[in-house]
Batch of 3 targets.
Target 1
Amino acid sequence: MIFKQLFDTKSSTYTYLISSGNGREALIIDPVIENVAEYISLLKSLNLKLVKVIDTHIHADHVTGASKLKNITKCSTIMGEHTPAEAVEIKVKDDEIIDLDNLKIRAMYTPGHTSDSYSFLMDNYLFSGDTLLINGTGRTDFQNGNPKDAYNSIFNKLLKLPDETLLYPAHDYKGEMVSTIGKERKFNPRLQVNSVDEYIDIMNNLKLKKPIEIEKNVSKNIKLGG
């Protein structure tokens, strides 16, 4: 299997490229529009054919490269069925399987950061979008975010996965690249709560600034960056 984790320094976004092997079909998760040329170069160097692009949710801090990649490679665009992006070709349901050669990726509806947030599980690789971060969790104060939904997504879905499940988030701001479900359950400060009400109270009092270009980015991302 080919697995590449790519980082956008401006938005601290992780993008993931997956394939079953050289010369095979490939999939990209959460592409950033400014980095499309880098993705294309990497695909060519590995002799890969990009067939699918997934966005975990409508991002607020960067513009997706989904449409640009589709225009170049003719790949299919994928998001969860709760997305407001009408331009998406394939809208997957909770628990639906996405096939990539002999790889199978399960869609998991994990709202809370936004109402359209999905995570994606491939074997023991969890691509959690902004729902569960390394030593943190996604904010819940815009784009129909909801701390109660986030709690349910994290505690009743993601933390039910095996401890050894590898956690690959859509963002990290401190240079962390990967964690595990077991490690996050034990040490993630946001998860050391005794009730849903305690979690809601934490999330409702973060007092975070909104992303500088949120309105522009969201409006572009609803059109898949096109």
Target 2
Amino acid sequence: MGWLQLRLVATADRVEAVEDALLALGALSVTLADHRDLPILEPGVGETPLWPEVDLIALFDADTDRDATGAALAALLGEAARELPWEYLEDRAWEREWLQYFAPLRFGERFWVCPSGHEVADPDAIVMHLDPGLAFGTGTHQTTALCLEWLATHAVAGRDVIDYGCGSGILGVAALLLGARRVRAVDIDPQALTATHDNAARNGLDEPARLLVGAPALLDDAAPAELLLANILAGPLIELAPRLAALVAPGGHAVLSGVLATQADSVLAAWLPWFTHLGTAHRDEWCRIELQRSERPAPCPA
């Protein structure tokens, strides 16, 4: 059995009314998307911003009466009846549909991220088999790629690592494959914790002795790590700087990403009381900041 999809365009002030009308008429889901490619990269805390023009994509049962639904929608919205752009969708395994566009990616000389259904021919390759599921992190986004490039080109073997904001677990699992002694992976999203466990198990690494996964409270009273990976956003990186700085041992490294190039100076200012800046790498509008914990840093506020 398939589905009927209806795509409508509304201005930001009309989105709520159109969404409510679609749901009242039996839409099984309504997805909001940018209509004019005007991305919102980092909303403020507590904000739910919308684009000036929004696509509303509604899914209905395949046996929905199109004419009756269209007339009722026009009545609810106070509009004249018009022909609507209905589209029939065949039922498929939608959660895996996107994987056809996700090919193996190489970082450094030997490290690869390989999705389900693909193989890497190089017998000397270090391969991460990845199925991110519902959590963020495939290696295709600039911020994740920047972090993977750092891991693939630096000495990680034997180091104790924290993956803060682990998403799919891609960075923590990569660190383990590259020889890290132990990884503590934390996230506030339960789906991320599930995805991290699943991806670690897929790579034969879901061992409590080497991988601990949990909410940020997992790090309360934890011993400092030699490497902190934090691919989150500039706002949390600034707000959490004292807390995260305390998680890095003297001489250890912090690799920060999820930062727009225009935000780099603000993030650096928040971290420099405890760290030396080793460099900033850029990819498109995003950047990665590499820092080293000072041997005698300023004390971290409580």
Target 3
Amino acid sequence: MNDNYFTNRNLKCLKKIREILSTLPFFCNEFIRGIENQTSALTRLGYVQDLKTFFTFLTTEIDEFSQKTIKNLTLEDLSHLTSTHIEIYLEYLSSYYKDEKNIFNGEKGKARKLAVIKSFLKYFYNKDKLPSNIASKVTSPKIHDKEIIRLEVDEVVKLLNSAENPKTLSKRQISYNKITQKRDIALLSLLLGTGIRVSECVGLNINDIDFNVNGFKVTRKGGNETILYFSNEVANYLKIYLHERNNNINISPEEKALFLSIQNKRITVRAVEKLVKKYSEDSVPLKHITPHKLRSTYGTNLYRQTNDIYIVADVLGHKDVNTTKKHYAAISEDARRNIANKVILRDEN
């Protein structure tokens, strides 16, 4: 049994990619093979899903392609695409139906899907199989910066206190809390104390933790492994949880995942998202907190302590410092507050 979360996730992605490719035009296989060495399986899965959305749009919404099925589309057909078609596609993405569900896309979703089409058409243009990359003429939607939402120091305390002693949860949630309390506190502490991604947290195994150095091995985006470190406080919560986990006779010896569900299997990303939502609504109801917001909280706090953007970028696993800046953008608010009394209007001395 393979207990590597990321290996298993990649295998599932590859299976899903093949399933979707079987419904797409034959030349899509060539494109996916062509980008395999530069992309992860998860990224390629996103690509084929977006391509299916695009081809569905062409065959159902554009008259020039309405006589075609998705499977029968050819590169010759795509040579008749115009920039207007792509612009109509972006408008279509605002709201469309898929599997009887209404799907909405904001500016980020549209920009990502347009980037996939640009990459797709550019690939075949560079191979002289298309006369042009018509999508390159379409301007990507402007991305507006959103307010950085993170927890303040006192709110971090409230969140952890909620996992320890919830106040507004339902009777059923409180009953679950009694079972998962030690796990939840350890998990929240690790997210808040290291800034790891939720997928990285879910993918941790017991043998990834080394209390001799208070460190753990984490698999980053792209599959690279690195060592991160946690505080004595986080170590204490992890030890308390692991003591309980190791004494649970219902857990299979083959199960190596660090954080387990009530069913004693590796916890899922969705379960962690629900966990964070549950305790944040109990403790800081006015803020919409997600695991990524806990990551932003850590990034902001680390920058405050170090004033070194490169250390923050390294610990968070960012390749681009500009990405890191988003995690401490609210620092400017602190700076504005600190200089409020610097400018004196009337010196009374």
